[in-house]
Amino acid sequence: MRGLMMDTPLLVSSLIKHAAAQHAQSEIVSRTVEGPIHRYGYAQAHRRAQQLANALTALGIVKGDRIATIAWNGYRHYEIYFATSGMAAICHTINPRLHPDQIVYLLNHAADRYLFIDLTFVPLVELVAGRAAKLEGIVVMCDRAHMPDSKLDNLICYEELMDGAQDSYEWPIFDENTASSLCYTSGTTGNPKGVLYSHRATVLHSFAAALPAGLCLSESEAILPVVPMFHVNAWGIPYAATMTGAKQVMPGPGLDGASLHEILDAENVTFAAGVPTIWLGLLNHMREHGKRLDRLKYVVIGGSAVPASMIEAFENEFDIEVRQGWGMTEMSPIGSINTLKPWMQDLPPSQRMAIQIKQGRPPFGVEMMIESESGEALPHDGKAQGELLVRGPWVCSGYFGIDDAGVHRDGWFATNDVATIDEQGYMQIVDRTKDMIKSGGEWISSIDLENFAMSHPDVQQAAVIGVPHPKWDERPLLLVVPVPGKTPDKADIFNFLSDKVAKWWLPDDMVIVESFPIGGTGKVLKKELREEYKDYALPQ
Length: 540
Ligand code: AMP
Hints:
The chain is α/β, with parallel strands linked by helices. Among the domains are: about 20-200, ANL, N-terminal domain (Rossmann fold), CATH 3.40.50.12780; about 365-430, Luciferase, Domain 3 (Luciferase, domain 3); about 435-530, ANL, C-terminal domain (GMP Synthetase, Chain A, domain 3, 2-Layer Sandwich), CATH 3.30.300.30. About 30% of the residues lie in helices and about 25% in strands. The chain contains 16 helices and 25 strands. The strands form five sheets. Strands 2-1-11-10-12-13-14-15 form an eight-stranded mixed sheet, with helices on both faces. Strands 7-6-5-3-4-8-9 form a seven-stranded mixed sheet, with helices on both faces. Helix 1 (about 10-20) crosses helix 3 and helix 1 runs parallel beside helix 9. Bound molecules: adenosine monophosphate (AMP). Adenosine monophosphate binds near residues 302, 304, 333, 429 and 432.
């Protein structure tokens, strides 16, 4: 027997419609590329999104068309998110940090009809636009006064485009499984693959993200996504915040420690989210200048493993709670978030930290299992390690334009991450399969070694890579970026590590470097490091 409930589809447009009606004055504050801070409430954001939907209709955009963006986090980008999805077109966010040839590949693969860009990216787009076959026009996200002097001949001014359009638009009702946005994976190997989110997945993901054990969003909170809107929809924050009426603070291009501190402080931000490298900049700035952020309650850190030293710094020095998150472009992205169970709060600090450095527990909606190389399900005992498989309504079921990418097994998505799951349900990433170091037939976790190395007071960042070895196949090499003004001593660091890991895990050598190559989504590029050090002569 079927239930007698309305079959109302879950649509992205319903989020902003609701926010406009219920949280009209709750603000979206943006630092613009042009300079000034812009602010407006959800009611006005909704009117502008409707205006843009009319403008896109006038350009001939119809259901299913792809509209690309290369833009920072800001209010116009937000309007594009909601206008495109709301009219059943698809918002395709492109990471400006990709190589221009990869951007050309993405524009062509997605067959984007229009490209919306921030002023910053005009020179980049000059390099690529001529090679994007389907592109009909480029909209610069500024007013007439700021329009650039560019050799691109098909430039449209965003505000002029808007000026010609009405600000009321009836959002169409359609199947909730319709595609809403498109984001390509970072593509560290081969060409990036397109993850095509649906309205249903986006709305369900927003419910999970907003929960107290997630981003804890409500209209009493102000959230700043440092994570860019071109990387997995800023972890879904623009949608989840809109669902709850939370104030949103968009940092624009200002992602250094000083700029972040200024806007976090000025806008009374209570919750911020980003990758570890970003937080390192903020921590260094606050320490150097004796600053604090007393209204900031939580930071969500994810994208790469969070070192214990970072959790300690936030919690002990600045009284800011760290919630580690794990996820993937293929998971919209939330897969797990680490919050402690009530009884864990009173554990001694070292026992609490042993839990906090795990990647956390899945929210309702995500299921996880770990599997051995021979395909057996492994126990959740915190010890058995295997490939992490996930499933749920916001996990991808395939890639855009690829028939079978071979990442699904019996209805589960294979993450390529190796993990443990403990009796309490906490998942811990041991490594990415390709970053694990195989020494004498046994696996060494680069993440564990890095975490321990980063808890040494002289080490700011650490990366451990496998270097070919004639006897053991591979042995670990530790690369460190020192804390400014310090010179880490190899013997001292190895001595420090020796009571934390098995003897055969100890790296064979250590190299001090000034910085690491960082990829488009803020992660250390291990692949480049492996390439650079592939002939490194380890001491015998
Ligand atoms: P992306 O699709 O670019 O967001 O990258 C997803 C990958 O980032 C995951 O498969 C993990 O390997 C890694 N990752 C994300 N969050 C974490 C985390 N908290 N700890 C360790 N690795 C992470």
